[in-house]
UniProtKB/TrEMBL annotation, chain A:
Clathrin/coatomer adaptor adaptin-like N-terminal domain: residues covered: 36-512
Organism of derivation: Tagetes erecta (African marigold)
Entry's Gene Ontology cellular component terms: AP-3 adaptor complex; endosome membrane; Golgi apparatus
Domain of life, per lineage: Eukaryota
Biased composition (Basic and acidic residues): 873-886
Taxonomic lineage from the root: Eukaryota, Viridiplantae, Streptophyta, Embryophyta, Tracheophyta
Protein's job: Part of the AP-3 complex, an adaptor-related complex which seems to be clathrin-associated. The complex is associated with the Golgi region as well as more peripheral structures. It facilitates the budding of vesicles from the Golgi membrane and may be directly involved in trafficking to the vacuole. It also function in maintaining the identity of lytic vacuoles and in regulating the transition between storage and lytic vacuoles.
Segments of this protein annotated with the region Disordered: 705-730, 743-768, 829-917
Protein name: AP-3 complex subunit delta
Subunit structure, interactors included: Adaptor protein complex 3 (AP-3) is a heterotetramer.
Automatic annotation (TrEMBL), chain B:
Family named by the database record: Belongs to the adaptor complexes small subunit family.
UniProt-annotated location(s): Endomembrane system
A GO BP annotation: protein transport
Pfam families linked to this entry: Clat_adaptor_s (PF01217)
Listed GO CC annotations: cytoplasm; endomembrane system
Gene3D superfamilies, per the entry: 3.30.450.60
Domain AP complex mu/sigma subunit span(s) in chain numbering: 49-187
Stretches that traverse the bilayer: 16-37
Keywords: Membrane, Protein transport, Transmembrane, Transmembrane helix, Transport
Protein name as it appears in the record: AP complex mu/sigma subunit domain-containing protein
């Protein structure tokens, strides 16, 4: 439709104006009718825009621009018409054209090349408004070609007597620099001159100049150190808050590089902080001081005072910024946070989620090994009463803080493991994956915590209600694995067996179910081993484990400690008649009856593991039952076929699994002939069919709670106390026993382990009063060692390199080294390079490609020569200037290398050949 | 592509100066030039203000000015996300929202939300002052400015914004200076 010819006279006469279009859009309700109207208008525009009458064309373009910017209609096809309008002699048309160009053009549009000459013409125009239009457009759509071709014109404008033009030319310059770095050489000197401009007329020029320097300095602060005196003058003399804020930002960058400068600047900044009425300026001063000048005690004290004022303010925005300020202070001056902890803790229950998040970050910054227990207790209280989203935010930050640097801050691992168990029971907990990882990770790293880990795992496994919540499945998987792997610490293996085989496990996805079944296998082999070969006991096998453990070394005393611990825990559970003939037979029946249906499972993983378990169980059942009948020769249990097999299996399982370093894969030599880089994209098509059913079955299991256990739902929601919940879960289990009598063993009285530490969510915190919590944290934040924590921290197996998390603390150290290296670089290099006010030459030498470095000239090069260059003819002019700049760049490279060498040392240092903490 | 340029040359020769020939020479070699441009890494320095949006209570955009290039699709999703995030907030919540790599500073005036996306280290309070200045300037020009004024005079709103902000940097803070060109234009037409 649009393709057929230009518009008729009628079209031009009765053209809809922009107002008509807007009214029309408003008449149609958003949705289908509006979009039909828009597409109809678009057809009209397509016709009208071809008109030779510029007025018609201009209105069409106006409408199109409107649709483009508010209704996201593509207008790249009209680019040429926009270019055409910019060449009109009428200002209104020109403006329409430029507006369309700046709103819609992108660097890849081909008609951009046509715009160059129009821009040049307008930049040289006598009408300052035309110049301003061109500059505004250029500042948005600038490409390297534009920048190269138009640099001379902008250079001329920099000396314009009209500040209206001058300020825009300066603001435009930043865009030109970034697109065409060679322009720096031409224009930099004039830009610097503008820093000296003062007076009412030039206030805006100064603002624009400082704005440009602020952006440049953020990218590469070192180069602008020589300009520090200029900035200092502005900092002291200027009364314009916009300018001051930008100058402060520049000093925040420079101050990090040059300590002597910081010393000089800190006084005037404090003056501004004391005197200024404008909150924006005060906050900028605070931010500058606490992020860059934190070594100056008096300045920091003043800043913290101001932060406190912000925190106490009724204005929410100021309170938010106050919290942000505290967060910046925290790394170097933790006392400031501790001083304001009441406000921080109170902010945790603020209505505004952003404020809550900032407060949470602050609380996390306060955590240390002394107060981690109390802070976590408080936070769990908050998590329970928060909305699901924030609750998970709290849990996530707790998990990441506690696991930082291989659980650096955790001393009492028993407490931490039970905390993880508590987290799993919080409704809405969606951090299953992380908790799963940490449970297993701690199990592998910390030997002493294993009995407690098994207890926590048992509490989770035994609760049928948890199986209904898909978010917890990952945690249950970890609990099942832990219970199977460390079954020797369990007080009642039979109970765990029951829990692993309870009917509701069919709610689990197959991948996790197979973990359950494999754990069953481990538990079964443990039971059989204990029954058939009691004299070989777990003690001996444990010692053996310690001996054969490769790669880990324990000190002698620790070795004894762990052994004793194992021995006591083992003997306590081993006395009595736990493994009687009858109980073993019952276990075997349970295993066989509940697993037999699964031999037909569609999931290979489940099927295979079930068959493994059943193979062992059936063999054992045959032999033990036959002996049972004869009732006499229980003595030669040792000679049974089962015993031999169970011994073998147990030996296999008793080898300790350890943590795996992050880079373990890299150390595996690649076998000859194996092509790792081979394209595996066609695997997707093959695997697609295979993986689908797994996902489906997972989503089928999604419903959170089955209607059959209503009370278990409420149980889970009211969960406050681990003891109560454990009791409840046992009663639920009893209910199951009643229902499926066949599957369950006669229950023996449940011996509940009493924990020596307070449960994470104690009912005392149930009332959740903010005041109470504040008081609690007040106690907790007092820096003293709690007497009951005096017991030594257990051994945490730590790998020498490549543990899971890249250690952030060390990283910042490296950065510091880099920065200090840079400072030295500047200090040493300055004498050689900073003669004359010549920073542009230095800048260019650093940031551009090699050939440019070779042809480099200093900024004093004449305008004529730069024009010459701007046409792309790089004449080899080897004058002394270029020689000099070569030397400079050479010098820099050398110092770079030196800095690099320094980093190498820093990296090597933390590698300590000790595996222990 | 080359053919179309030649056509363009024939049709519009009169409206362009002689410089045009120079451009055409570039165009013929254009395919090479263009490829080089498109492959070029995005070098652009990021200035403080990244975009200014005006959105009404219903979530309809009333003005959108970006200081960095985003495709239409990116703009649409960004505006959608921001509107959903900010409009859901009430008066008792603070005016700063973090979104992707931006920090959004916003302020509500009657039915209209003014949203400014800035870099993370930009001074939030200064941006709030900037928003207020923008509204005051519009108010002075339109007299009791409302959503409809901005709708029907989008060009003028853009014009004011262009006077105040260039390349993401605030260059003019005097209301009289900002409005001078517009008044001149109104007088002449």
């Amino acid at each position: 439709m649009s393709g057929t010819g230009g518009p008729s006279l009628i079209d031009s006469l009765f053209q809809r104006t922009l107002d008509d279009l807007i009214k029309g859009i408003r008449l149609h309700i958003p949705g289908a009718s509006q979009s039909t109207f828009i597409s109809k208008s678009l057809d009209e525009i397509r016709r009208e825009i071809k008109s030779t009458d510029l007025q018609t064309k201009s209105i069409a373009l106006q409408k199109l621009t409107y649709l483009h910017s508010l209704h996201h209609i593509d207008m790249s096809w009209a680019a040429f018409h926009a270019v055409e309008l910019t060449s009109s002699s009428s200002f209104i048309h020109k403006k329409t054209g430029y507006l369309a160009a700046s709103l819609s053009f992108r660097s890849s549009i081909d008609v951009l090349l046509l715009l160059t000459n129009q821009l040049r013409k307008d930049l040289g125009s006598n009408n300052q408004h035309e110049v301003s239009l061109a500059l505004e457009c250029l500042s948005v759509i600038c490409t390297p070609d534009f920048a190269r071709d138009l640099t001379p014109d902008i250079f001329t404008l920099l000396t314009s007597s009209k500040s209206f033009i001058k300020k825009k030319a300066i603001a435009c310059l930043l865009m030109v620099f970034s697109q065409y770095p060679d322009a720096v050489r031409v224009c930099f000197k004039r830009l610097v001159e503008n820093l000296e401009s003062a007076g009412d007329n030039n206030a805006q020029v100064l603002a624009a100049t400082v704005g440009v320097f602020c952006e440049l300095a953020t990218k590469e602060p070192r180069s602008y150190l020589p300009l520090a005196p200029e900035f200092y003058r502005i900092l002291v003399e200027s009364r314009n808050n916009w300018v001051l804020i930008k100058v402060l930002k520049i000093f925040a960058q420079l101050g990090k590089l040059e300590p002597r400068l910081a010393k000089k600047v800190v006084e005037p900044i404090c003056d501004h902080m004391k005197r200024s009425e404008a909150k924006s300026l005060v906050f900028e001063c605070v931010r500058t001081v606490v992020s860059s000048f934190y070594e100056y005690e008096f300045a920091v004290k003043l800043a913290v005072e101001k932060i406190r004022e912000f925190l106490m303010d009724s204005d929410l925005n100021l309170r938010y910024l106050g919290l942000q300020g505290l967060l910046l202070v925290a790394p170097h001056h933790l006392w400031a946070v501790l001083e304001n902890k009441e406000v921080v803790i109170k902010s945790l229950s603020d209505v505004d989620r952003n404020i809550k998040l900032e407060a949470l970050r602050l609380v996390m910054s306060m955590v240390s090994d002394d107060n981690v227990v109390e802070i976590c207790r408080v936070l769990i209280g908050y998590a329970l009463k928060s909305d699901p989203e924030f609750c998970n935010e709290i849990l996530r930050s707790m998990l990441s803080t506690c696991s930082r640097n291989v659980y650096e801050i955790i001393i009492d691992f028993d407490w931490y493991v039970s905390l993880l168990g508590e987290m799993a029971r919080i409704p809405h907990c969606q951090n299953g994956e992380e908790i799963e990882f940490q449970l297993i990770d701690i199990g592998m790293r910390v030997k002493d915590v294993r009995p407690e880990l098994v207890r926590v795992g048992r509490d989770l496994l035994i609760d049928p209600a948890l199986l209904g919540n898909p978010f917890i499945h990952r945690i249950l998987s970890a609990a099942a694995w832990v219970s199977g792997e460390y079954i020797q610490f369990s007080r009642n293996p039979f109970e765990i067996m029951e829990a692993l085989l309870q009917p509701r496990t069919n709610l689990l996805p197959p991948s996790i179910r197979s973990v359950y079944i494999h754990s069953t296998f481990k538990v079964l082999s443990f039971c059989l081993h204990s029954f058939l070969l009691p004299e070989e006991g777990v003690n001996s096998s444990l010692i053996k484990v310690d001996d054969i453990e490769p790669g880990f070394t324990y000190s002698e005393s620790e070795q004894e400690f762990t052994e004793n611990d194992h021995a006591t825990s083992y003997s306590s559970m081993h006395k009595g008649d736990t493994f009687t003939q009858e109980s073993i037979v019952n276990v075997l029946t349970l295993v066989i009856t509940s697993l037999t249906p699964l031999t037909e499972s569609h999931d290979v993983e489940i099927q295979e593991r079930v068959r493994n378990v059943l193979g062992l169980a059936q063999l054992a059942q045959e032999e033990i039952c036959s002996h049972h009948d004869q009732k006499e020769k229980m003595v030669d249990k040792v000679d049974l076929k089962t015993s031999t097999i169970v011994r073998l299996i147990n030996e296999a399982f008793s080898e300790d699994l350890g943590p795996i370093p992050f880079n373990a894969q890299e150390r595996v030599p690649i076998p000859n002939g194996l092509v790792l880089e081979d394209n595996l994209s066609n695997l997707d098509s093959i695997c697609a069919d295979v993986q689908l059913p797994i996902n489906e079955s997972f989503s089928l299991i999604k419903p959170t709670f089955l209607p059959t256990d209503g009370d278990s739902t409420s149980n889970q929601q009211n969960e406050e106390d681990s003891e109560v919940s454990a009791a409840e879960s046992t009663s639920l289990l009893a209910e199951h026993r009643k229902r499926h009598g066949l599957f369950y063993l006669p229950s023996d009285t449940n011996k509940k382990a009493s924990s020596s530490f307070p449960p994470a969510n104690d009912p005392k915190q149930g009332d959740n009063d903010v005041e109470d919590l504040v008081k609690l944290t007040e106690e907790s934040l007092v820096l003293k060692r709690k007497p009951n924590l005096s017991r030594p921290r257990p051994v945490v197996v730590k790998l020498d390199e490549g543990d899971r998390l890249p250690i952030t603390v060390k990283k910042t150290d490296e950065n510091d080294d880099l920065i200090s290296g840079a400072v030295r670089d500047v200090l040493l290099g300055n004498e050689a390079t900073s003669h004359s006010n010549n920073p542009s030459g230095r800048r260019k030498g650093k940031s551009h490609s090699k050939d440019k470095v070779e042809n480099s000239e200093t900024s004093s090069s004449s305008k004529r020569r730069s024009k010459h260059r701007s046409h792309g003819k790089n004449v080899e002019e080897k004058d002394e200037n270029s020689e000099k700049s070569k030397q400079k760049s050479g010098g820099r490279h050398k110092s770079r290398r030196r800095a690099d060498g320094h980093i190498d040392v820093a990296v090597q240092k933390p590698v300590i050949p000790d595996f222990l903490l | 592509m080359h053919a179309s340029f030649v056509f363009v040359l024939v049709k519009y020769r009169c409206s362009f100066s002689l410089y045009f020939l120079h451009s055409i020479v570039l165009c013929v070699g254009g395919s090479i030039v263009l490829r080089r441009i498109s492959r070029r890494r995005e070098l652009r320095l990021k200035m403080g203000i990244r975009f200014v949006l005006m959105v009404n209570k219903q979530g309809q955009t009333r003005l959108a000015q970006y200081y960095e290039y985003l495709t239409l699709e990116e703009r649409r999703t960004l505006e959608g996300e921001i509107v959903r995030k900010c409009l859901a907030r009430n008066e008792q919540q603070c005016s700063f929202v973090e979104h992707r790599t931006y920090k959004i500073v916003y302020r509500r005036y009657a039915s209209l939300f003014f949203l400014v996306g800035v870099d993370n280290d930009e001074n939030e309070l200064a941006i709030l002052e900037f928003i207020h200045l923008l509204v005051e300037t519009m108010d002075r020009h339109f007299g009791n400015v409302c959503e409809l004024d901005i709708m029907f005079h989008l060009e003028k709103a853009h014009f004011m914004l262009e006077e105040m902000v260039m390349n993401g940097c605030i260059v003019e803070t005097s209301k009289a200076n900002i409005l001078a060109p517009i008044q001149l234009m109104d007088k002449s037409s």
